[in-house]
Write a structure and sequence with these properties.
Elements (H helix, E strand, L loop, with lengths): L3 H31 L5 H8 L3 H7 L3 H26 L2 H28 L3 H27 L8 H11 L8 H16 L3
Helix pairs in contact: 1-2, 1-4, 4-5, 4-6, 5-6, 5-8
């Protein structure tokens, strides 16, 4: 039977994980609304924690920005498995590309801060592309294997389409237009 100190340590770790997750969600919301320079006191308030808790988890603004970005990449990659488990592969591909639009809209706000960080942020930013490409490849392969998308359209074609769709992602309102174009793109990818 666990001792009281073991139970307390597990509870503290669980509380700490919850606080970290709340801080990341609050920071994403604050950064999306006001930019990566949003006041950290506002982030802590939104998360329902004190500023000391924020600094225990993220000692610098750069660490918080990198944490938000890493969480976005992790969630985007993990969502592919869940989507493939819940729906046909072609639909999973379309739903994931819609999530990619969300990711790009968030990236627009925090990418400049990541690139300016000579440490963890810039390294994270540089390495994130491989995770996204591998996930897109996996979903494309699954959609092909299921016969849900045209056989003459390959991963590189989808990548080119998404590259074109991403043009201007740093502009306000880009995501609404991107979603319209994504709908057209997915209709064209369906197997006749």
């Amino acid at each position: 039977m666990p001792e009281d100190s073991e139970i307390k340590a597990r509870k503290t770790r669980a509380d700490s994980l919850r606080n970290r997750e709340r801080l990341l969600a609050a920071a994403k919301a604050a950064f999306t609304e006001t930019g990566a320079e949003a006041p950290l006191e506002d982030v802590a308030r939104r998360a329902g924690v004190g500023i000391g808790t924020l600094y225990r988890h993220f000692p610098t603004r750069e660490a918080l920005v990198a944490g938000v970005y890493a969480r976005e990449i992790e969630q985007l990659a993990a969502s592919a498995e869940a989507l493939l488990a819940d729906r046909p592969a072609g639909d999973a591909l379309g739903a994931w590309l819609d999530l990619l639009v969300d990711y790009m809209a968030a990236k627009r706000v925090i990418a400049p801060a990541l690139r300016a960080d000579p440490g963890e942020g810039s390294q994270l930013y540089a390495s994130s592309g491989s995770t996204i490409l591998a996930t897109l490849q996996k979903l494309t392969d699954a959609a092909h294997a299921a016969g849900d998308i045209r056989p003459d359209i390959g991963f590189e074609d989808i990548l080119r389409l998404m590259s074109g769709l991403s043009q201007g992602y740093e502009q306000p309102g880009w995501d609404a237009g991107a979603r319209r174009l994504l709908s057209v793109m997915m209709a064209g990818l369906r197997r006749p």
